Amino acid sequence: MTVAFWCVLIALILPYGCAYIAKFTGGKFSLKQNHDPRTYLDALEGLPKRAHAAQLNSFEILPGFIAAVVISDIVGNAQQVTLDVLAVVFITSRLLYIICYLADWATLRSLVWFAGFAIIVSYFFVSM
Q1: Does CATH number 1.20.120.550 belong to domain 3-126?
Q2: In the chain, where the domains are located
Q3: CA distance linking residue 96 with residue 86, whole number of Å
Q4: pLDDT tens for the 128 residues of the chain, in order
Q5: Which residue intervals of the chain are DSSP H helices?
Q6: Is the full-model pTM beyond 0.90?
């Protein structure tokens, strides 16, 4: 397993950390809310609401990252160390993105999101 593949696993786990923050920082989540968690999550405010939004965005960007890692591995034109470094930088950008979302730093969050997206795009260019 390459570092880039391990980063795919990390990227898959990150949204669940956000979900935990969304559900349990408000102090109101219980098994009763688990019968209809979407309604509960839609009614959140403040930090839990931002954590839920970070969770959703983390799921949304996953397919692009996974595709970039797998396609670049299949093509095989890039050095593995380059792919691994890109993956680690992507995970770092996602962690920073989540921090910015939770802290309500909207402008910085958008810049970090764009950097993460640029990393995904760069996979295709280094694999040419």
Answers
A1: yes
A2: 3-126
A3: 15
A4: 999 999 999 999 999 999 999 988 876 777 666 778 888 888 889 999 999 999 999 999 999 999 999 999 999 999 999 999 999 999 999 999 999 999 999 999 999 999 999 999 999 999 99
A5: 3-24, 37-42, 46-75, 80-103, 106-126
A6: yes
